[in-house]
């Protein structure tokens, strides 16, 4: 057998592996897009043997493969994920999600300028052969820009993989991002162009594909206008957000009005925040907007959703409980509709968390009462600490200890405390209780 037949035979033996890689990548992509509040449909596939063999034979005429290793270095889409965005205007945000989540090795945007060579040696959209491209050029001159998308070659991050999935980390995956309309047109074009046994397309067929592309581009403009109309409705102060996508859209637009570069901002778990707000009947622009206006802009360290939750929870044990319930439901969806029996360790942790949160709420209430910064409607806890330190209410040691306890509190509240033992939580609760006593004594309270 030749080098192509050998490669395809080996790929057939590994097909289940590549299909699992693609499925895993799609799952990660779906979770991250949903968390960021981006509406999209994600699908995945391992490349079919027939398409792989045809692609290799087309490329072999120009590249003259000499080994399976050369083929492996040339073919990047054995595992593929397709992301179809509802709103093409969210392409930049989708790219940010991909770059924040995966190890991006190469990115290519379509369409490319005329005559631009590809330094990575990747053929044009869907690996159209030069013969096909020349055939189209001879038969029809395009009026519209054609395929519009961004393709990313990525590696899966180890932190998103279980022990049994660790071997997927070295597999290259191609993620294609385009609008839902563009993906549909792309499929039609690809299937028509790649039918060599049925003859080449006629000039009329190329012209019709071009016309359809024009309709797709017009449809994308309509989708962008639809998104803008939805944004205007969401901005209505008393219209409740219908889902976390609308909440995320509102936050983006509100921050944009404050001059924040949203492509650099981390939104965090807007799905958890929405569930909490809906439960508390606070999922409206009038309830959320004032808190967005006073966020500290360190979004890379403290995501927007976490900061908003912190501001809206402050000083209320009931709200803390509701937020932790929303966080637990997001992490363990099965618990929404079933009763699960926990271990004794789970019970100990739950009691320790409750003890810590109870003391923390009392501390927040006390510091809010003392701080009262002028002109600030919803001061953050960090802002309160700075104010009280400047006023001399807190000593340097107390200020440092409270910031350390605040970091622990953030891990507990935002679902990152799995490695914190019940003993550590109880010790932290005692620290907070002692801090309460010291601050109260300093104010002359009994």
Automatic annotation (TrEMBL):
GO biological process, one term: guanosine tetraphosphate metabolic process
Pfam families in UniProt: RelA_SpoT (PF04607)
Residue ranges occupied by any RelA/SpoT domain in the UniProt entry: 44-200
InterPro entries per the UniProt record, alphabetical: NT_sf (IPR043519), RelA_SpoT (IPR007685)
Protein name: RelA/SpoT domain-containing protein
Species for this entry: Micropruina glycogenica
């Amino acid at each position: 057998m030749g080098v192509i037949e050998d490669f395809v035979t080996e790929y057939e033996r590994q097909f289940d592996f590549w299909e699992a890689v693609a499925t895993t990548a799609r799952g990660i992509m779906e979770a991250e897009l949903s968390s960021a509040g981006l509406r999209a449909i994600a699908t995945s596939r391992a490349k079919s043997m027939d398409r792989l063999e045809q692609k290799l034979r087309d490329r072999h005429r120009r590249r003259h493969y000499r080994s399976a290793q050369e083929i492996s270095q040339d073919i990047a889409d054995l595992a593929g994920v397709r992301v179809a965005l509802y709103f093409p205007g969210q392409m930049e945000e989708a790219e940010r999600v991909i770059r924040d989540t995966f190890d991006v090795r190469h990115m290519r945007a379509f369409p490319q300028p005329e005559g631009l060579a590809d330094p990575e040696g990747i053929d044009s959209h869907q690996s159209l052969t030069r013969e096909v491209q020349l055939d189209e050029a001879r038969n029809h001159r395009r009026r519209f820009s054609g395929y519009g998308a961004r393709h990313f070659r990525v590696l899966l991050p180890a932190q998103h993989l279980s022990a049994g999935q660790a071997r997927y980390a070295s597999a290259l995956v191609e993620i294609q991002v385009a609008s839902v309309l563009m993906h549909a047109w792309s499929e039609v074009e690809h299937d028509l162009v790649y039918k060599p046994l049925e003859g080449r397309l006629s000039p009329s067929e190329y012209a019709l594909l071009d016309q359809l592309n024009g309709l797709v581009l017009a449809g994308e403009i309509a989708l962008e206008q639809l998104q803008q109309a939805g944004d205007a409705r969401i901005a209505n102060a008393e219209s409740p957000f219908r889902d976390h996508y609308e909440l995320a859209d509102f936050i983006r637009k509100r921050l944009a009005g404050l001059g924040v570069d949203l492509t650099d901002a981390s939104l965090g778990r807007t799905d958890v925040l929405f569930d909490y707000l809906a439960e508390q009947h606070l999922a409206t622009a009038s309830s959320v907007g004032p808190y967005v206006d006073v966020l500290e802009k360190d979004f890379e360290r403290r995501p927007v959703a976490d900061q908003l939750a912190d501001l809206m929870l402050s000083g209320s044990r009931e709200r803390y409980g509701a937020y932790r319930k929303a966080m637990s439901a997001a992490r363990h969806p099965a618990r929404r509709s079933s009763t699960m029996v926990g271990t004794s360790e789970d019970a100990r942790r739950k009691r320790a968390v409750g003890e810590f949160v109870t003391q923390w709420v009392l501390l927040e209430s006390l510091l809010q009462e003392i701080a009262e910064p002028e002109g600030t409607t919803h001061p953050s806890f960090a802002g309160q600490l700075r104010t009280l330190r400047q006023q001399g209410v807190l000593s340097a040691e107390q200020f440092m200890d409270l910031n350390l306890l605040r970091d622990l509190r953030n891990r507990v509240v935002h679902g990152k405390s799995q490695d914190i033992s019940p003993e550590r939580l109880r010790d932290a609760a005692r620290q907070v209780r002692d801090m309460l006593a010291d601050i109260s004594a300093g104010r002359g309270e009994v």
